[in-house]
Design a protein that fits this description.
50% of the residues lie in helices and 13% in strands. It has helices spanning 19-68, 81-99, 125-149, 157-173, 178-186, 192-215, 220-229, 261-271, 285-302, 306-309, 323-329, 378-386, 392-402, 425-431, 464-488, 499-534, 576-586; strands spanning 72-74, 77-79, 236-245, 311-317, 339-344, 349-359, 364-374, 414-418, 441-444, 451-463, 491-492. Among the domains are: 18-68; 72-215, Triger factor/SurA peptide-binding fold (Orthogonal Bundle), CATH 1.10.4030; 240-251 and 281-359, no CATH class; 364-462, Chitinase A, domain 3. The protein is globular, with a radius of gyration of 42 Å.
Length: 587
């Protein structure tokens, strides 16, 4: 054994691990893992709780941003979601009320999503109503600015009060709260406090619009001039008429079309040999022609007696008369005693007409006070008035007491300048009855209606035709004014809510590209025409190839070409209309 000593390397000898040591080590590692899991769990828990707190806190934040944030911009002004929704829902409501009877003819189902129904090839009904809403906002904001620039003053407090009372009344009748009803009408974010400034602003703008309308009222001279140019729209006629229907055959005659046995066999198979169903016979053209010829003979005989035996129609306006005969009745040369026979090939008949008179009806509009109530309440309300002071003033109080604000908002139920066409027939007949005097009253329950009208007659106003023309002229002027406002209005959609703007931009871009393409095509066509004209032989137009004795210089145009056969610009005249047609198509 060597006497060398082993150098000290400071390495500790490796300890031999016993089973006990291994067991204790595993326990230590498990404790460390548990500690790590607890720390991770605490961190995850804190994150989840923090996320829930942020989510809950974000609800009022998001609502605030929606309500007070910018949905669109009009004329540089921020429009909130609340204001936009109000205008959108009003646009929809007004449109449906106006065209309710024709909606299905227009292809619109009001119970389905508007954005899934096409208004045109590119716009949905949702886009259409969206555009209406934005145009209303543009108009109102433009009017608002002008009203404020003029320092227009109008107190809307009473009208706003009536608005809120009307909402409350309709909500009660609908069996819901006014807050819920307000949201149903004007959008999910509509509350009384949020809507108040919007409604007050619109009431102020409406008053200013009425002020502008009064300023634009036409003079009596303008009314008369308009009538003179459009007499046929306001005159009335009296006439007599008989109708002669052609007697079309209900089964084949000798003029019937040849039978198609194969087609008849198919019809028998579909209808069960005719036992279950029998289609109506369709006459042939020859059969119809023969029947119409017989009807015409009968009509021509009736023309001799129609002036005495025809049914009398009095005070008929052109718009209320069948288009088959109204043109004839309103011809300028028409005179009493004229008769005619007019064919209606669509309905297979002839009209036998006798003209009696044409005139301008001078009936006057009337002023009334009205209570509109349930049919069973009318007489009781009138009796209550009669039991009191029974004056016009007290009748106005009765109107305010019983009228529903959603039906009549006029103070004291006063309706001025009411036209015959705007009243039930029974009310119009009573109001225009000879001897009618101020203070007369009646309860009218028109047939087919569930309401009764308690009526107080105040008096007469201007002639109906004057009022009608006056309103037409005012509407024309205001329409031009509003169109100018819309043309100058600016709409911005920073958040991409307005799809109709995207569609318009795409259509304008396509039209621009089409126009540029058309112009380029036209230029190319003209270049080719010019090239062709340059390649023509000189003897086609040049004087050099002409015999000297046949080319008297005094008989030639100054440019040396044939003035009749060449267009003034020197291009091929046949190529010109192409550009004109393209331009017309572009328009």
């Amino acid at each position: 054994m060597s006497n060398h000593e082993t150098p000290n390397t400071e390495q500790k000898p490796e300890k031999v691990q016993t089973k006990y040591d291994l067991k204790m080590q595993r326990r230590k590692e498990e404790k460390e893992r548990e500690a790590r899991s607890r720390r991770n769990g605490n961190i995850i828990g804190i994150v989840i709780v923090a996320a829930l707190v942020c989510l809950v806190a974000s609800f009022p934040i998001r609502t605030y941003l929606t309500v007070h944030g910018t949905y669109v911009k009009v004329n540089g002004e921020n429009i909130s979601k609340v204001e936009y929704d109000y205008n959108y829902n009003m646009a929809v409501s007004n449109y449906l009320n106006q065209y309710g009877n024709y909606l299905y003819m227009m292809g619109l189902d009001p119970t389905s999503d508007f954005t899934s129904q096409m208004y045109s090839e590119t716009l949905t009904w949702g886009d259409f109503f969206q555009q209406m809403a934005v145009e209303n906002i543009v108009r109102n904001k433009s009017l608002l600015k002008q009203a404020k620039d003029e320092n227009f003053v109008y107190d809307v407090s009473e009208e706003y009060k009536s608005f809120e009372e009307s909402l409350q009344q309709m909500a009660t009748e609908g069996g819901t709260s006014v807050n819920e009803y307000r949201k149903q009408l004007y959008g999910a974010y509509a509350t009384q406090s949020r809507l108040k400034p919007v409604v007050e602003e619109l009431l102020y703008v409406a008053a200013y619009y009425d002020e502008l309308s009064d300023r634009n009222a036409p003079s009596q001279e303008e009314v008369q001039a308009y009538y003179d140019e459009n007499k046929e729209n306001y005159d009335s006629v009296d006439y007599r008429m008989l109708t002669v229907d052609a007697e079309l055959p209900t089964e084949p005659t000798e003029l019937a079309d040849p039978a198609d046995e194969e087609a008849e066999g198919q019809d028998d198979a579909e209808t069960g040999d005719g036992e279950d169903a029998e289609a109506a016979y369709e006459p042939s053209e020859a059969e119809i022609e023969a029947a119409m010829a017989e009807a015409k003979e009968e009509a021509e005989k009736a023309e001799k007696t129609v002036a005495t035996e025809g049914e009398l129609y009095e005070n008929q306006r052109q718009s209320a008369i069948s288009y088959h005969i109204n043109s004839w009745l309103f011809e300028e040369e028409r005179k009493p005693g004229d008769t005619t026979v007019i064919e209606d090939s669509t309905n297979h008949r002839y009209y036998v007409v006798s003209f009696e008179d044409r005139y301008l009806d001078d009936v006057r509009a009337v002023d009334l006070r009205l209570v509109i109530t349930a049919e069973e309440n009318g007489q009781a309300i009138l009796d209550e008035w009669k039991a009191g002071a029974a004056t016009e003033e007290s009748f106005g109080e009765i109107c305010d007491k019983y009228n529903n604000a959603s039906t009549i908002q006029a103070e004291g139920g006063l309706m001025e300048g009411v036209l015959s066409s705007n009243m039930p027939a029974e009310m119009s007949a009573w109001a225009h009855e000879e001897g009618r005097a101020a203070g007369d009253t009646i309860v009218i329950s028109p047939e087919g209606e569930t309401n009764s009208y308690v009526v107080y007659y105040v008096g007469t106003g201007d002639e109906e035709w004057v009022l009608s023309i006056r309103q037409t002229l005012v509407n024309q002027k205001m329409s031009e004014y509003v169109s100018e406002l819309l043309a100058n209005g600016q709409v911005e959609d920073p958040k991409g809510h307005l799809r109709y703007l995207e569609v318009q931009a795409a259509e304008e871009s396509a039209a621009q590209e089409s126009s540029e393409s058309t112009e380029a095509s036209g230029s190319e066509s003209q270049s080719e025409d010019a090239s062709d004209s340059e390649s023509q032989p000189e003897d086609a137009s040049g004087s050099e190839s002409q015999p000297e004795d046949a080319s008297d210089s005094e008989s030639q145009p100054e440019d040396g070409t044939d003035g009749e056969s060449q267009p003034e610009d020197g291009t091929d005249s046949e190529s010109q209309p192409e550009d004109e047609e393209s331009a017309e198509g572009e328009e």
